[in-house]
UniProtKB/TrEMBL annotation:
EC supergroup of this enzyme: oxidoreductase
Pathway, per record: Cofactor biosynthesis; pyrroloquinoline quinone biosynthesis
Organism this protein belongs to: Roseobacter fucihabitans
Gene this protein is translated from: pqqCD
EC number: 1.3.3.11
UniProt keywords, alphabetically: Oxidoreductase, PQQ biosynthesis
Protein name: Pyrroloquinoline-quinone synthase
Task performed by this protein: Ring cyclization and eight-electron oxidation of 3a-(2-amino-2-carboxyethyl)-4,5-dioxo-4,5,6,7,8,9-hexahydroquinoline-7,9-dicarboxylic-acid to PQQ.
Family per record: Belongs to the PqqC family.
Domain Thiaminase-2/PQQC: 11-220
Keyword Oxidoreductase assigned: yes
Catalytic reaction equation(s): 6-(2-amino-2-carboxyethyl)-7,8-dioxo-1,2,3,4,7,8-hexahydroquinoline-2,4-dicarboxylate + 3 O2 = pyrroloquinoline quinone + 2 H2O2 + 2 H2O + H(+)
InterPro entries in the cross-refs: Haem_Oase-like_multi-hlx, PqqC, PqqC-like, Thiaminase-2/PQQC
Pfam families cross-referenced by the UniProt entry: TENA_THI-4
Length: 249
């Protein structure tokens, strides 16, 4: 039986309550000030791979959309990350965070040293959006429903516990507090409008679950590689690698 609009939204929100990556122990370490400087750097390096892939994911989505109104609504997501004449964009803000934690932004932007599991997870997400139905692609983006809370907790925790944290280095998260609600308001309404059968509702819920798995698996990889006992796979960044560190001026 098809769920009511209200029951279906509750179902989607419950997925986040149970599966969003704010529940991962790595975030407890990070936000609580218990990460070493190198563990913070590893997080910045690997999360960048996700950040720089988001515009490619959104471009892949838009290339399949025949409705101009949907394309117009969606393209702001690319601008939010890539930037415009009036907005430096999330990718540049993330590289400013990289510099603040002592990394060479050029090294981070090269995506060298990213964990294999991070690449597999993020690439799987881009491929998912490229190949699945538009409903599933939009539904996967609804992790943004839960993002403002984690951004607010992150800003508070990093400012309290790390010397590198200030308005400049944390500008990515502060901007997402404004950008994410706009995106998710549109995306949620679109999914609720278009998931008009139980089969489509189940597919949308599965897509959101998939995306929570993508985010969770990235933190699993970080925790396994850089938190005791550290097990860094071949090719991934190794703490102390001078090529990755910001050069003294």
């Amino acid at each position: 039986m098809t769920q009511t609009r209200e029951d279906f939204e509750t179902r989607l929100r419950q997925i986040g309550a149970e599966r969003y990556h704010d529940l991962h122990p790595f975030h407890d370490l990070l936000h609580g000030g218990n990460c070493t400087p190198d563990q913070v750097r590893a997080w910045v390096i690997n999360r960048y791979y996700y950040q720089h892939s988001i515009p490619m994911k959104d471009a892949a989505f838009m290339s399949r959309v025949t409705d101009p109104a949907l394309r117009r609504a969606w393209r702001s997501r690319i601008e939010d990350h890539d930037g415009t004449d009036d907005n430096e964009g999330g990718i540049k803000r993330w590289l400013r965070l990289a510099r603040a934690v002592g990394l060479d932004p050029d090294y981070v932007a090269s995506c060298e040293g990213v964990l294999p599991a991070t690449k597999f997870a993020v690439d799987a997400y881009v491929r998912y959006v490229r190949e699945k139905t538009l409903l599933e692609a939009v539904s996967a983006s609804l992790t943004e429903l839960f993002a403002p809370k984690i951004h607010a907790n992150r800003i508070q925790g990093l400012l309290k516990n790390y010397a590198f944290a200030d308005d400049s280095s944390l500008s990515y998260f502060k901007n997402r507090l404004k950008e994410a609600p706009k995106d998710v308001a549109f995306g949620l309404a679109w999914v609720l409008d278009h998931a008009d059968t139980r089969e489509k509702q189940d597919a949308a819920a599965a897509a959101l679950t998939f995306k929570t798995d993508v985010l969770w698996s990235q933190l699993d990889a970080l925790h396994s590689a850089y938190v005791t006992p550290a097990r860094i796979p071949p090719g991934a960044w190794v703490p102390g690698d001078g090529l990755a560190l910001q050069k003294a001026s």
